[in-house]
Write the structure tokens for this entry.
Amino acid sequence: MGEKRMMKGRMKLLLCVIAVLSLMVIPAFAASGEMTDSALTVGVPVDRCPVFYINSDTNEITGIGVDLMRLAANDAGYNVTFKPIEEKNLKDALDNPSYDVIMPLGSSVSSTRGEPVIVSDNIMQTPFTLVTAGSRTLPALNDLHVGMLSSLAAGAETVNRLYPGMEISLYETMPDCVKALRTGEVDALLHNSYVWSYVLQKPAYSDLAVQPAAMFSMDFCAGTLDTPEGREIISRLNDGIKALSDTQRQAVILDHTSRKLYQYDFSDYLHKYGLVACVVILLIITLVVVTQQRVRAIRKWHEEKMRQMLDYDPLTGVYSMNGFRKRAELLLHTHPDTPYFLSYNNIRDFKFINDSLGREAGDELLRFWMSRSLENLSEDDEAIGRIDADHFAVLRHITGEEQMRNDEKNVLGPVQDFFINQGKNYRVQICSGIYVLTPTDFRNIDVDHMIDLARVAEKRVRDSRTSSFGFYNPEQWDRGKRIAEIINYLPAAIKAGDIQVWYQPQVNYETKRIIGSEALCRWDHTKLGWLYPFDFIGTLEEAGLIFDLDCFVWERVCQDLHRWNEQGKRRSVSVNVSRDDIREDRDIPAHFQNLIQAYNLTADQLHIEITETAYVENPGFLISTTEKLRSLGFQVEMDDFGSGYSSLHMLKEVPVDRIKLDLHFLTSSGDFEKSRVIVRNITRMINELGMNMIAEGVETVAQADFLQNIGCNEMQGYYFYKPMPVLEFEKLNEEI
Ligand code: C2E
Ligand code: MG
Ligand code: MG
């Protein structure tokens, strides 16, 4: 009984042990059942199509390596997930614990941190091929310098182990690799053949050639750090890899290599179809440009048509009021120095012509009048326009007396006889009012106002019934004619020798000797007779023509000086320089320098007179010009000192050699005694400042004596000599 109880007790203990053991073992079995389906994260590079790449449809990582690994891992009981490697290369990725294994490794390398690595059995044999720029014969593999992607650093290590003599350079990207190849930095590029089959589809790489002879293969393994867990994973994976058959491998490889994976990007299209694209783009651009031009031309044509409609009178073809205004404004802007008149012309009793001879006859008359007028006008600087009905305005250049007579003969006469010549007994009468433009009209151009003034004159003519034309401002007409006769005649006068250079001797009163002379111009005008500078210098200055005259005078003086030099009679002459000659765009010193060189003169033979007022107007530039002239050896004289509003202060500022005191201005008006005081003091001052001085306009012995008394011996004036023609001047010099 006791034994039975003992047996019962032992049984209970055994059951307890079994229960405890089963409690311990069952979960262990359960755990081992979970291991069969454990997760495995495989890090892979995704830029190695078709070995590893992202499927653009599913956005999942796929490729030969992925499919083979998935087969092996599943076989080994792993639920495998692929994760793109973010690291620069596989060796770096090995140190990242978020991947369980890394692919692909050719052999067991060490991680970047130097940790030993364990690799799986070979999943497949990967062919590696060399690619060169164009086909060429390569040296032995051990003597090669090859380029590889730096993401293949682990592979490079394997290659290096296989071919220790091979030099390997790593590049970040495939374009960098290709660039190094093309520039000859490396002999060839090395990469997985499957990847090449993808990469070389890029049109820009069509010059790269595969070197089939230089092919070798590398293992394609998965690897991880050599730790107990790592060894466990690898060992399980190896079981799966062992189970992979060659048929499976080939099927996977064929599946991915036969797919059309390469997709053209923009640069590929550009490379492949660049020429065609350029031609197409060029064609499009040409088409756009041509169309634009055509549109612009049509718009211009329309604008021109519109302008014509607005600016021209359809009946006569001359300007309309609008067109005339515009044209007149333009002409006055561009010809500010030309004397102009504006006439307003009207046919007397035009209504009667229309009523009795017919509207058509009236139109004919207007057309005839305009065609005659147009023939008589210069298209360049004159204009005619129809203001309204039978009223026409003409802007005309004043050329002189002849003008009116010519207009009468060529236009007015035939228009007056228009109907008579047709056998009708009617004489046309034209009334013209003329407004002569004043300088203000050029500054403040108001064509309508000018037409109004001409219309006032026309009204007077129409009312008086005594003449056919009248002036709004007759005194301006005389002035305008005169200006025109001076301006228009100048070029011909210079050519014809109508402009002469006269000389007025300058003397030393003490020694009674001629010490020099001043060149003064005279104009023997074809129409106006002898003209003195006063008559035309100002006009030429206003018209911007004084430089033409002065150049002529200076050259003539140099010719005379040269002739006298040749005759052994060296003289010096003072020439006048207008304030308008000295401008920033004209190098006056160089002009004189060229002249004396051309005529073989010395600079001291030319004295250059610049009027005092010029210095007041533009002191800075005048002073620098004076300094330049003096540095070239010319004598510079300040002309007409005392005539302007100059300050004595200028004597200090302006670096001239001689002051020409204009006695005439000082003595012609006011208190003679006071003038004497002024002249005496100015003379003293000039002497004390160390400048030379000459008095001009000396007319009496009293003036000459007075000047001598106060210390001024150099004189020029009618008391001694008047300006005289060159022959007379030469004779005078011979006599004394
Ligand atoms: P200017 O340079 O002061 O010339 C002196 C003027 O005074 C000359 O008048 C001369 O004939 C006149 N004259 C000389 N002695 C006497 C006198 O005792 N009494 C009076 N009442 N007058 C006298 P002209 O020749 O009529 O020249 C007048 C101005 O015209 C000159 O004054 C000068 O400024 C300018 N001129 C003359 N020829 C030219 C030239 O070729 N070019 C330039 N730009 N201006 C010139
Ligand atoms: Mg002078
Ligand atoms: Mg003078």
